[in-house]
Design a protein that fits this description.
The protein is mainly alpha-helical and 290 residues long. It has one domain. 76% of the residues lie in helices and 0% in strands. The chain contains twelve helices and no strands. Helix 2 packs antiparallel against helix 3, helix 5 packs antiparallel against helix 6 and helix 10 packs antiparallel against helix 11. The radius of gyration is 18 Å and the shape is globular.
Length: 290
């Protein structure tokens, strides 16, 4: 069995934090604004923030009795007893302290916009599963992921290097955010029954299985439409359509989503994360090549 802490940080979900940083950095490079230290700090901050979110979900879902022995997703270390709640809580605190330290450097580079984005990101991460009104349990998880792991992450990474933003940056952040949201959608589709029994009202619980699958399909479809729009409007060269190399992979993921149930969706979860990363890398290549 893997290390309990490795299970807790859920490494298969980490492409969700890497993808927006490499896209934001590729945009900065294409605009001759790339700076290695802010880019690396943004990457470390994003990875730590994702790990903090994963640990927080593990910890808070245990105390809110969302995670039970009936859970069909990957092992949760608090619920399974692999790591004590106190140690998981300490891990959360340590992770977010590191986020704050890295954030302090990024704020020194980017100023108050980065401070505002960083504070909002930490609050959103903690309130996703914690607090008196956990946002992820009230249908707001999908929106939060799109905003913070897509728009804010890409734009923030670009901003700490270029110290400015433009429409092209905002538009390019959208497909990344949509694909990362699709990762969450697979997770919540898999857990619909157990979430319902625990009283956790994710958007998937509210929509039901059919419309959650429709949501996933639309998220992927729109992700591929945006590069076409950028080329059509002359905001990017046709090279960004390199991302379309991943279309067969996307088609395979959609087929799996519509045909699989329960634990079988763990494979689709990892596959959607891989799709997100590969799509993002090819999008970056297209922006750099021009």
């Amino acid at each position: 069995m893997a290390s309990p802490w490795l299970l807790a940080i859920r490494p298969k979900t980490l492409p969700a934090s890497v993808s927006p940083v490499i896209v934001g950095s590729a945009l900065a490079f294409s605009h001759k604004e790339f700076h290695i230290l802010p880019a690396l700090a943004a990457l470390m901050g994003a990875l730590l923030l994702q790990i903090g979110v994963n640990l927080s979900n593990d910890y808070f879902d245990f105390f809110k009795k969302v995670d039970t022995p009936e859970r069909i997703g990957p092992v949760r270390v608090t619920q399974s007893g692999l790591v004590s709640p106190g140690r998981v809580k300490a891990g959360i605190i340590a992770t977010f302290l590191l986020v704050v330290l890295i954030g302090a450097y990024l704020v020194s580079v980017g100023g108050w916009p980065i401070l505002a984005a960083g504070v909002a990101s930490i609050i959103a991460a903690l309130c996703y599963s914690g607090g008196p009104y956990p946002l992820g349990s009230h249908g707001l998880g999908d929106l939060l992921v799109f905003l913070f792991f897509g728009i804010v992450a890409v734009c923030g990474t670009y901003y700490v290097q270029a110290l400015s933003l433009s429409k092209i940056v905002l538009w390019t952040s959208a497909p990344v955010g949509l694909l990362i949201t699709a990762i969450l959608v697979v997770n919540n589709l898999r857990d619909i029954e157990t979430d319902q029994r625990a009283g956790k009202r994710t958007l998937a619980v509210m929509l039901g299985k059919r419309w959650t699958r429709v949501e996933y399909t639309l998220l992927l479809a729109v992700s591929y439409m945006i590069p076409i729009r950028l080329v059509w409007k002359g905001q990017a060269s046709a090279w960004i359509l390199l991302s379309f190399v991943t279309l067969p992979m996307a088609y395979s993921m959609v087929r799996r989503i519509w045909s699989e149930e329960g634990p079988a969706l763990n494979g689709a979860l990892a596959g959607t994360a891989a799709l997100t990363l590969i799509f993002s890398v090819l999008l970056c290549a297209g922006m750099v090549i021009k």
